[in-house]
Every structure is written in structure tokens, then in C-alpha cells.
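Hey, quick one: can you model this chain's 3D structure?
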Amino acid sequence: MIYLLLMLVKWVLIFLITLVVVIAVGTVLFLKFAPTFGGRPDATTLARIKASKHFNGETFVNLIPTHASTLDIADITDGVNDDERHLLLQFLFPPKGKNPSQPITSRSLTLINDAKKLSTTLKDGEFVWLGHSTVIFRLAGKIIITDPVFHRASPVPISGKPFAMTHMPSVDDLPFIDIVLISHDHYDHLDHKVIKQLVKQNKAGHFYAPLGVKAHLVRWGVLADSVTEFDWYEEITVSDNDLTQLKPSNPALIENSVQNKRPLVTDELRLVFTPTRHFSGRRIKGHRTTLWGSWVVQSAPLNVYFSGDGGYSNEFANIGEHYGPFDIAFMEDGAYNERWRDVHMLPEESAQAGFDLRAKVVLPIHWGKFDLSTHHWRDPVRRIKQAVAKGNEKVLEDWQIKLASPRVGEGFTLVNLPTEAWWEAED
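Sure thing. Here's the predicted structure for all 427 residues.
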């Protein structure tokens, strides 16, 4: 009997050790080879990275000192304080209201106008928020999309699931996209499955991305010639006659921005990659080795700003002075917390950034789709709405901001802004 027990213990131990080894080896292989982690920059990109005045030899750096940590993992052996313990518990055991209890009512997309799903019904000056930081719109006859993410905001299937919606947007709903704008390579902004689907369905023309991000796109099937990488304050002018073979112009430095004021003709777009106060990275190691930022999109009739992610800084006022005023600004408003305020604005700061940019309309983004912080899912839009109203009381009428609040999938123009507080009716 004792012999049988010893043999049982032996085989249980062998099984457990084997299981641990298999899990460890599988984890290492996953971290090393899984496509979701992207690629490594080639020699040409590396040379540009090293030449950037925003690169310190090891990583890119923000224009002002920035702290990007949430929990001090490196000091975990010293224990966690009450604030860190409370934060961890909120993630492990979410309080009521942190996620919607029922599917959010969204609109079914009606953007496709032909059998090949290439033509579109989207009109010039029309915008559609697709959740989080994804907005599709049309300017100068070109379809543009920002940070297309339709799947998980995580490399693993146990986290980052999007909120349930009555109509979940997908690549199948999209027409041909002329311009894909990427702000940075975090998982909730760069979805490798979406990129592969766009390539497979031949639905993307050209990708514009920060320095270092091209390697990810190429690994996922995008042709190298279909990607243009930018440093901060580099710009390019896109026209119907020259859309896919583009090179950045000389850096349009903020102190020498005369060329930015050149009037654009009907079919032209000017794209400018502008700084944010954030960070980057898709792997455990290698954070801040690719750049991050925001986008200015200028056409003859409309001027658009897409914030990407970032903490508040005076750079919004600089961008507003040199590239504003903006007809509409897609402003980050969500996944915030006092602990990481340096890299994600609080809603009141997002509203102030809108005033700094001299935006006429603000569309809150980065909320309503993923659970990436500790706040109630409705709080971002409630707080920015209140903050914009208070800010409008302090400025002249010409400087006041209108807040656009569409449902996911709802198309709108700047003359028919959606303003309904629809989130209050959701469970």
C-alpha cells in the first residue's frame, strides 16, 4: 500500500513538473514568435530612429519628464501600499458599473456601396465613431481611419475583451480605406488581426505610422512600400495623383511652420505627426523603442485633430497655435487614473486640451469599449461633458466648444452634431 502511494506521488510530481515545463516553454515560444508582438525595425528605420532628436540612444523620450508606471512591480518584494492594493483589487474584483451590464446599443454600419465592398456611401465631411479610438471619416474624397481596433485590447484571450454591443463593427463593414493613421503600437490602438484582415480583403491603401511601427505592419502582411513612418512634426501632402508612393517632407518644425499655412487644393490632404506625452511597446521588454503621437489632418474645407493617447501638456497649445483652429478634435477621454495621469489625461484635462487646440467640436474617444482602468464606464463622457460646459462659461463665444456624442456606428457631420446623452439610458 505504501509502495502504491509512493508511486502515485512520484507520477503526480512528474506530471506537475512536466506541466510546468510545457507551460514555461510554451510561454517563451509565444512571447518570442507570436505574430501579435510585431516585428523588429529594419536598417533603414533604425537609422532614422537613431538620428531622431527625440531618441536618447536607447528609447524615445517625451518632451517633458513623464512617469508611466501603474504599479511598482520592480519593488513588489517590499510589499504594496494601501493605494496599490486597492488598485489591484479593483482590477481583480471590479465594482458595480465598471462594465455595462447589458450590450450597448450601437448603430449598424451602412458604409458600403458596391458588391466588392470598395465603394462607400460616406460623404465628405462625415464622421463615424467605431468605438475606443477608431474613427472613420472622409476628407478631400479620401476615406481615413484612425487606430482601427475591433478585437481584444490584449495579446492574450483572457483579457481586453470589448464591451458587448448590439452591432459590433468589423472589417467586413468597411469600404476601401485610403489612409490608415496609427498613433502608437499599444494593443488597444494597433490590432494585428484587423491589419491582417485589411490586407487579406485588399481594403487598405497606405499606412501612416510613428517611427518603428512599420516593422509590425510588414510582419502582418502590409507591403513595405505601403507604409510611411514619421517623427514628430514631420508632414506630408497627399493628393489623388500621388497617394501610395510617398516620402515625408523635411521636418515641419514648430518654429518654422510657414509651409503648413499653404492653402490646399480640393484633392489634397496635409498629414502632420505631432507629439503626445505617452509611451509605446508590445512586449514585456522594449517599451518606448517605437514612437507615439497624434495626427493633424488638414483639407481645404476642414481641419481635424486626432489625439492618440497622452497626458496633458503645453504641447496642445503649441499645436493649436501652429495648426489650429480645428473644426473637430478626436480627444482621448478614458482609461485614466491619478496614478497614470502623466500618460492618460483626466476628462477635465481632455476638455482643457480641446480649448488649447482651439477646437470647435470635440469628439470624446478612448471610452465606451474596453475596461482598461478603474472608473465607471460612463464616467469619462459624463465628466468631459461637464468640464466642457464649465470651460465654455469662461471663454468668448468664438472659442466655445460643442461636444459630439454619437453612438458607436452613428454617422454625423459638423452641421448635424449628435448631442444626446444616450449612455444614461443604457443599463
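One thing worth noting: Residues 137 and 259 are 25 Å apart (CA to CA).
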